[in-house]
Amino acid sequence: MKKNSNGTRKKTTKDIDGVIYDVLIVTVPTGSDSDLDQKYPVLIENEDDGIANSATLDNLIGPNYGAETIPFYFIYRKPLSAPTIESVIPAETSVFGGHEVVITGKDFRAGAVVIIGTVGGIPITDVSIENNGTIIKFTTPPTTMVVGDKAVVVQNADFGQAVLEGGLKVVSYPQVETIFEETGEEGAGRLSVEGGQKIMLKGTGFQEGGQRLSSQVIEQNMLIQHKSVI
Predict the structure, then answer these.
(1) Which is nearest to 113 in space by CA: 131, 138, 130?
(2) 69-111: pLDDT as tens digits
(3) How are beta strands 135-139 and 100-106 bridged, if at all?
(4) Nearest 5°: CA angle at 59, between 58 and 65?
(5) Which partner from 21, 120, 131, 204 sits 20 to 30 angstroms from 108, CA to CA?
(6) What percent of the chain has pLDDT over 70?
């Protein structure tokens, strides 16, 4: 039996132990009861008819199982639980990571994994399950997320899964390193209350079209200059 995945597909690359590999992320087609526990090889077919089969050792890059290279298959499993997600608090985090997020819902079980994003999602295994399986807590990972609205997935070890589309918004994390005069001279600290001065900011995480300059940054810099004059 052959099942085609013609839905969402995404090709990217990944560095594993210093080697760059192609990564193809696909949406798994819906299975039926007759598919349960069947072993389906994974076939990759290029536009020029080149084919790789996960059941053919010559098509595999190994070792993939300890020191051995073995064939692998996709197997449909029937979920034994039915978790649900009611809320994600807070509903916003940054690409910097390090924020604690609390998911409330039902039927979260030991061994559950939280996944941020459904296509090429980021799995988080270090989670805390509390209050009789109605709360999951985790910390957002650093630097691996990308900006945008992300689905939040809770997947139990028995394959029961809950999805909250757009449950977590990931925003950028710009940081200012240095403030320059318009001429390029470092230390633009003396700003007129009338405004109109042009300055340059050096840092990371700036986005095209960014227009807002934090008044706190300006006030702190003016305060430092004021103290130095005193």
Answers:
(1) 138
(2) 999 999 998 899 999 999 999 999 988 889 999 999 999 999 9
(3) antiparallel
(4) 85
(5) 120
(6) 78
In this structure, what token pair is assigned to residue 183? Answer: 């001429």
DSSP state of 57: G
Give yes or no for residue 164 having a pLDDT over 90: yes
Residue-range domains of the chain with CATH = 9-75 (no CATH), 84-171 (2.60.40.10), 175-229 (no CATH)
Give the integer Cα–Cα distance in Å for 230 and 220: 15
Each residue of 139-164: b (16+ CB within 10 Å) or e? ebbeeebeeeebbbbbbbeeebbbeb
What separation in angstroms does the CA of 103 have from each of 114, 130, 139, 158, 162? 10, 10, 11, 19, 11
DSSP single-letter state for residue 111: T
For the chain, how many residues are written? 230
Q: Return the structure tokens found at 180.
A: 């320059």
Pairing of strands 175-181, 199-204: antiparallel
Q: Are strands 43-45 and 92-94 parallel, antiparallel or unpaired?
A: unpaired
| DSSP code at position 36 | B
Q: What CA–CA distances, in Å, run from 47 to 1, 13, 143, 227? A: 21, 19, 34, 67
